[in-house]
Structures are given as structure tokens and as C-alpha cells.
Design goal:
Blueprint lengths: L19 H31 L6 H29 L5 H38 L9 H25 E5 L6 E5 L5 H41 L7 H33 L6 H28 L1 H11 L5
Antiparallel strand pairs: 1-2
Helix pairs in contact: 1-2, 1-7, 1-8, 2-3, 2-4, 2-7, 3-4, 3-5, 3-6, 5-6, 6-7
Length: 315
């Protein structure tokens, strides 16, 4: 059973479904996502690390978000190769690495966005109360980012343990899969529920509560005070975080909804179901290359810093 974002279907027995159109189209789509995502996220990392004015708390979290997306796009060519070869030729160790990174991509984006949402809530709360935040520093953001990575690694650890190369006894075909103990179906359902709760239900519920409270406090302030809730710069950052979050949820919600469908129904494998499955997979992949464009459109400081980096200065 392969349960990363690489595959949403369970293929039972020795039956494999192969479609020429998908064989050609999917590598093209994945290659575009890889090229765009690797270029865009590398540019984000470069700008934030090199431009002095970009060293802010929010940008520290954006930096780690870009690193997580870059890590995934770096290994995407291996997923493309597996799709084209129709078997796994890369060995046990790389199988564990690839499946782990598949799952890092599921958890890291939403957890860093949760941290960014908490940060936005604290900023709004401090602004409403006209208080300063001496503890909100670039160094503190580094420590929090490190803690998020540790948390994600711990969450993904069970998948790393169960990842391995399975050899089909009938035709000798090797596959990189999650090899669960008996009863496999029960372990498979448990893994999907675990991913749904830890990778979607908990962080998304937290984010929704935070933004609801944030909007409530801003609304009350507009009603009870003539002062502006946020200055122009803070408003822009808050809007940017909200839009990045909305795009992330748009790309990932179908994946997690498919988990609910897989757990509650017994759908037969049909061409339509396979097409929907690969569309959902491609949509979740696409999230790794969209964020840099959002920063470029929504963040003036990022756009200016990037242009400055591209300037050709005379010797």
C-alpha cells in the first residue's frame, strides 16, 4: 500500500491499471511542477537569506515553508522515474527517504502555516491592546521553526519505519510502499486516520479558531474605537498569510477528503476514479510551486528585494 501523496489508490492483488494518456501526461505535469517549484522556492530562500530587510519573523516562517517545498520538488524526479519505469529501482534506503519526504510535504506546510496564523493572531491582539511584543524576535522565530521541524519528523517517523521495498511474488516487480503488519487493512485505515487528524483536522481547526477570534477582535475594535486595528504594513502581511493559507487549503482539502471517502466507502477502481485520484495528487503537488508567486504578487518588500538581487551592478 502506497499512502503518501504519490498515490491515493489501493491496488489489490496482482492487477495493475495502466493508461497511455496518464503515462505521458503525468510526467509532464510533475516535471512542470518540479521546475517551477524548484526555481521559485530557491529564489525565495535566496532573497530571504541575502536581503537584510527580509529578516523578519514572518519571513523566517516563509523561509522554512520554502525549504519544505524545495525539499519535496528536489525528489519529485524520482517519483517521475518510478512512474515511467513502472517499478522501483532505487533500493530500500532511498525508498524510506522518498516516502518520508512525501509525508513531510503533507505535514510541514500546514504546520508552518499554523505557526504563521498564531503569529498573526498575536500581532493583531497586541495591536488591539496597544502593547509591544518584545519576545517576538527573529531568533525566537528560528527556535520555533526548529521545533516545528522536530515535531514533523516525530509525526512522520511511523511512516519511515514502515516504508520499504515490496517484491511481487508473481512477477518480481519491486514497489516502494508502506508495508504494514497483519491485518494490513486495519493498519492502512489507522494510518489514514492518523494523517487526517494530525495533518488536517487539528491544524486546520486551530487556524479557523484563530482567524475567527482575530476577526471578532478587529470587528469589536472598529465598533468601539476610532483607531485603526492595524497599520498598512501589518494589514498587508496578515492578508498575505491568509491568502497563502487559503491556497494551501484549496490544494490539500481534496486529498484529505479522499481519505474520508476511502475510509467510509468501498469504491471500485474505475478509469474515472483513477483520473480523479491523479488530479487530486497533482493538485496537492502544485501547492509546492504556488507560494513564491503569491509572495511576488502580495509582498512589496519581497518583490523589491528580488529585483535588487537581479540588478547588474558595474564592477
Amino acid at each position: 500500500i502506497r499512502t503518501g501523496i504519490g498515490c491515493l489508490l489501493v491496488v489489490s492483488g496482482t492487477q495493475f491499471y495502466f493508461y497511455a494518456d496518464l503515462y505521458v501526461i503525468l510526467p509532464v505535469i510533475y516535471s512542470v511542477i518540479c521546475a517551477v517549484g524548484l526555481t521559485g522556492n530557491t529564489a525565495v530562500i535566496y532573497v530571504i537569506l541575502k536581503a537584510p530587510k527580509m529578516k523578519t519573523v514572518t519571513n523566517m516562517f516563509i523561509l522554512n515553508l520554502a525549504i519544505a517545498d524545495d525539499l519535496f520538488t528536489l525528489v519529485l524526479p524520482i517519483n517521475i522515474a518510478e512512474h515511467l519505469l513502472h517499478y522501483w529501482p532505487f533500493g530500500e534506503v532511498l525508498c524510506k527517504v522518498i516516502l518520508s519526504i512525501d509525508h513531510y510535504n503533507i505535514f510541514s506546510s500546514i504546520y508552518f502555516l499554523t505557526v504563521m496564523s498564531i503569529d498573526r493572531y498575536l500581532v493583531v491582539l497586541a495591536t488591539v491592546r496597544s502593547k509591544r511584543m518584545p519576545y517576538r524576535t527573529y531568533r525566537a522565530a528560528k527556535i520555533i521553526s526548529f521545533c516545528v521541524w522536530v515535531l514533523v519528523i516525530l509525526i512522520v517517523m511511523p511512516f519511515t519505519v514502515f516504508a520499504g521495498v515490496y517484491v511481487n511474488p508473481n512477477d518480481g516487480r519491486k514497489s516502494c510502499v508502506l508495508s504494514f503488519p497483519i491485518p494490513e487493512s486495519l493498519w492502512f485505515k489507522a494510518s489514514r486516520i492518523y494523517t487526517l487528524i494530525m495533518g488536517f483536522a487539528i491544524p486546520v481547526s486551530t487556524i479557523c479558531i484563530l482567524y475567527t477570534m482575530m476577526l471578532y477582535k478587529l470587528r469589536n475594535m472598529r465598533l468601539n474605537s476610532n483607531a485603526k486595528a492595524l497599520d498598512k504594513a501589518k494589514k498587508k502581511v496578515t492578508i498575505m498569510v491568509f491568502i497563502v493559507l487559503a491556497v494551501c487549503l484549496f490544494c490539500w482539502t481534496p486529498f484529505h477528503l479522499s481519505t474520508i471517502v476511502a475510509l467510509t466507502t468501498d469504491l471500485k477502481t474505475t478509469p474515472l476514479l483513477i483520473g480523479i485520484s491523479y488530479f487530486i495528487t497533482s493538485l496537492s503537488y502544485a501547492n509546492s510551486c504556488l507560494n513564491p508567486f503569491l509572495y511576488a504578487f502580495l509582498d512589496d518588500s519581497f518583490r523589491k528585494a528580488f529585483k535588487k538581487m537581479l540588478e547588474c551592478r558595474p564592477a
